[in-house]
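FAQ

Q: What does a record look like?
A: Structure on top, sequence underneath. For example:
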């Protein structure tokens, strides 16, 4: 078969590879039409299993895979069935679940919509920083229980967001955006990231500190580090125990970055509070004490794109496909050498 390189004037063959429910949520009729204007799409349904006879037939002709949550691993066996495959455009964030070493060894170009998915995660984080600083959740609960308003003025200096200190763990895509969203607020921002120097942190709008100082000084610590072998359990007991009384830990990264047992003990004892969009495992067992802990807000991994935010993922992916088909290259490429810094 003749290859159809980007910029050749020939329409590349594309296929969707993700869970069917994801495809229907992320790609609406307008998105499908836009894809068809750029490529020759394989007929639906989407591919969610690369081992079936139909999948093998589709893969034999594809130049481009548009992937999403639920895409099977693109391992050596799958790639043998896709001899023309030259690019993968992912409509979500991390590509770790499906882009394997075999893809990098073959030189397949990879793009991700991580930049688009970072937007709602950062917005969620900002909202939780401000809400917990103002003690909105606790006040709403007390108001509901009392059915009456207590003294409206709260002189307690631990309540409020004026000159609060927020510590950002990792200058990832999301961490950087959170720092940027905090700029208009009267909040002091600390940052720990071993790959950022003091000048780089200052340019972002934060002050670089070591990890123990970040936890010791912050009123709120927001975790944005990717889960890697060296970051598993990074937020351990010593760091959690060093947090200020009534400080808040916000985790929108991965549950396993935090020592959940140590965190559970701290919030049950009332020493600190937590907002957890991720846990280890997801979902927690029904009897886990975090479910009923008043010092914890648990949300079901919803900080990322939801509802109308999913359109942002599709739009970025389509823009990347447009660039690739015209030979301009990806604006949001995923590089193998950068995997250690990505979620």
């Amino acid at each position: 078969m003749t290859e159809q390189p980007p910029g050749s004037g020939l329409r590349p063959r594309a296929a969707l590879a993700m869970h069917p429910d994801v495809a229907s949520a992320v790609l609406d009729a307008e998105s499908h039409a836009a894809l068809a204007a750029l490529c020759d799409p394989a007929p639906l349904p989407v591919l969610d299993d690369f081992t079936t006879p139909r999948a093998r037939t589709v893969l034999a002709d594809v130049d481009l895979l548009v992937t999403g949550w639920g895409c099977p691993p693109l391992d050596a066996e799958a790639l043998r069935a896709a001899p023309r495959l030259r690019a993968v455009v992912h409509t979500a964030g991390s590509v770790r679940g499906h882009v394997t070493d075999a893809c990098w060894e073959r030189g397949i170009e990879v793009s991700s919509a991580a930049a688009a998915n970072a937007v709602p995660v950062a917005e969620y984080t900002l909202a939780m920083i401000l809400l917990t600083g103002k003690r909105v959740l606790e006040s709403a609960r007390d108001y509901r229980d009392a059915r009456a308003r207590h003294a409206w003025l709260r002189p307690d200096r631990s309540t409020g967001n004026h000159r609060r200190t927020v510590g950002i763990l990792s200058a990832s895509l999301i961490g950087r955006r959170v720092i940027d969203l905090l700029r208009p607020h009267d909040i002091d921002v600390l940052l720990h990231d071993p790959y950022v120097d003091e000048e780089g942190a200052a340019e972002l709008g934060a002050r670089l500190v070591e990890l123990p100082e970040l936890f010791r000084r912050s009123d709120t610590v927001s975790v944005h580090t990717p889960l890697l072998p060296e970051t598993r359990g990074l937020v351990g007991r010593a760091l959690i125990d060093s947090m200020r009384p009534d400080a808040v830990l916000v985790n929108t990264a991965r549950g396993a970055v935090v020592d959940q047992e140590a965190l559970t003990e701290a919030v049950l004892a009332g020493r600190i509070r937590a907002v957890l969009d991720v846990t280890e495992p997801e979902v927690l067992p029904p009897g886990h004490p975090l479910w009923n802990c008043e010092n914890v807000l648990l949300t079901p991994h919803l900080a990322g794109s939801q509802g109308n935010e999913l359109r942002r993922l599709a739009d970025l992916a389509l823009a990347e496909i447009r660039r690739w088909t015209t030979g301009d290259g990806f604006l949001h490429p995923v590089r193998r050498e950068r995997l250690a810094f990505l979620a």
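Q: Is there anything notable about this one?
A: The longest strand covers residues 164-169.
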